[in-house]
Amino acid sequence: MTIRHFLKLADFSAQELNHMLERALWIKQKQKAGTPYRPFEGKVLLMIFEKASTRTRVSFEAGFCQMGGSVIHLASQGSQLGRSESIEDTARVVSRMVDLVMIRTFGQDRLEAFADNSRVAVINGLTNEYHPVQIMTDIMTFMEHKGSIAGRKVCWVGDANNMSYSWLEAAKILGFHMNLAIPEGYPLDLSLIPEGSDYYTLFKDPVEAAQGCDLVTTDVWTSMGYEEENEKRRRDFANYCVNEKVMAAANPGALFMHCLPAHRGEEVAAAVIDGPQSVVFDEAENRLHAQKGIMEFCLKGWVD
Ligand code: CP
Ligand code: NVA
Questions:
Q1: Is 3.40.50.300 the CATH number for 134-283?
Q2: Do 9-131+287-300 and 134-283 have matching folds?
Q3: Is the CB of residue 219 below 6 angstroms from any atom belonging to ligand 2?
Q4: Which residue positions in the chain have pLDDT lower than 50?
């Protein structure tokens, strides 16, 4: 079987992404019914973290174990990666020992360098540019609450970051529209998104961007790795808080999502994230389930 890495959503067709989502929903049902599904017996997942994590760490480890496999956790501190062994040599070595690798790192180029030298499939657990497992999770959560995302409108408020770029890739592939309210001085990097401009619209005002949307979503103003910009960003993003006014402008019953961790009073008002339209904890739980569909696709291919 040819290796299919899961590095970014644009590497997949709509049919493939929908298949992973359907499989994730099926595997979730099995687990909720208490029926074991253990296709990874005898398999080993290696997780490499070069940035902090709570959800990614716990959901990948719990998910792989629940499917019958074992997991090894490697952090840059405490491994030779932290003492400047190259990412290429690391990939050549560890991919002879394990069946699947998940990496959270800085540049997408570093993830790609690992994948290029790996004998086994590699999953992106977040880079500076993309967070594809989170967006698959968010779409799965949307499907559970509202049905298919195709033809819908999603509002993104805040930073043009890894989350927004994976959202934009998903919109192009799966056929929904993104309204993005992004502050001046933080332009979209067009080299990171699919060609064309028919699948997104840019706004200055979050209230305007929310109109006609079935989902409003946001993320931290400062992503991991950009901490020195924190104070400037606090000032520049002050008007990019998802508050009750923004939610009121969206369609009635619109969902609120946030990949977490969140900062109440910055990118989202407490009344919104802790309010009735918020599904952030369903979303967090679905990391466990969505990634099972992705890992199954990487290890087993198309499963009917
Ligand atoms: N949303 C997310 O990726 O969370 P962690 O940083 O805790 O893994
Ligand atoms: N955009 C955030 C997401 C954290 C899960 C970051 O990269 O830090």
A1: no
A2: yes
A3: yes
A4: none
Task: Please report the pLDDT score of residue 159 as a whole number.
Answer: 98
Choosing from 219, 228, 229 the residue with most ligand 2 atoms within 8 A of its CB, the one to mutate for a pocket test is 219
Does residue 121 sit in helix, strand or coil? Answer: strand
User: Which of 47, 50, 51, 56 to mutate for ligand 1's pocket (most ligand atoms within 8 Å of CB)?
Assistant: 56
Which residue's CA is minimally distant from atom 1 of ligand 2? 223
Inter-axis angle of helices 280-300 and 55-66, nearest 10: 50
Quote the tokens at residue 240.
Answer: 């990019």
Query: Exposed, middle or buried: residue 282 (CB in 10 Å: 0-12, 13-18, 19+)?
Result: middle
Q: Where are the domains of the chain?
A: 9-131+287-300, 134-283
Per-residue pLDDT reduced to its tens digit, 50-75: 999 999 999 999 999 999 999 999 99
Give domain 9-131+287-300's CATH superfamily. Aspartate/ornithine carbamoyltransferase (3.40.50.1370)
> Is the pTM of the predicted complex or chain greater than 0.90?
yes
